[in-house]
Design brief:
This protein has helices at residues 2-18, 23-39, 45-53, 56-70, 82-90, 96-105, 110-128, 133-152, 156-189. By secondary structure, it is mainly alpha-helical. The protein has one domain (2-192).
Length: 197
């Protein structure tokens, strides 16, 4: 029983350390949201909304590259949390049909809807990475963007993109630091070898 608990503890630590706590994704997507915000001022609404909708195509390769630089090793193929981690990572893709419908109805609604989806996406990471930082991030992204939309109306299209980018960047060092601390603490109880770059 104790051995299973240690393996499960090790699995959580490995998820966080191999992904640098998710910080590379926050940095990369923060950048693409910010760039999308700048472009939203110079491009037609429909074009800007399309860029926002598919900005992940640029962010994802950058995030994987950063993960290789910032993370410690790779997650083991036999990690019991591997499948769940992958499913959580790709879950947002299932919202693409609804986003396309929203785009056809009102392209300017895309930023606030993506922020809400981001909140839903991040909430389970509080459990996976063993930190309430992701709960705070989920609430800040989802409800913050909603409040911006209510207060600013049409102008919110631009502002929400900057808001999401800045919140991601602000959260990135905190989740990274948590991954380092969590990995070291759990590594002492399990096997610290995977913490070595």
């Amino acid at each position: 029983m104790k051995q299973n608990t240690m393996n499960f503890t090790h699995a959580f630590a490995e998820v966080s350390t191999s992904s640098a706590g998710g910080a590379p994704f926050l940095i990369a997507y923060g950048l693409t949201f910010f760039v999308s915000g700048i472009l939203s001022y110079v491009l037609p609404d429909e074009t800007a909304a399309l860029i926002v909708l598919f900005q992940g195509g640029a962010a994802l390769p950058l995030a994987f590259w950063l993960e290789r630089r910032m993370g410690w090793g790779r997650m083991a193929a036999d990690n019991p949390l591997r499948a769940l981690s992958v499913q959580l990572a790709v879950s947002q893709a299932l919202a693409l049909p609804a986003l396309i419908v929203a785009f056809n109805m009102n392209p300017r609604s895309i930023p606030v809807i993506l922020a809400g989806l981001g909140g839903v996406h991040f909430l389970p990471y509080a459990w996976l990475h063993r930190t309430q930082l992701y709960t705070a991030l989920a609430v800040a992204i989802s409800f913050g963007a909603f409040v911006v939309q209510l207060l600013l109306g049409p102008v919110a299209f631009h502002i929400i993109l900057f808001y999401v980018g800045v919140i991601y960047w602000l959260a990135a060092p905190f989740v990274y630091r948590h991954a380092v601390q969590f990995g070291k603490a759990e590594g002492q109880a399990a096997d610290i070898s995977f913490l070595e770059p």
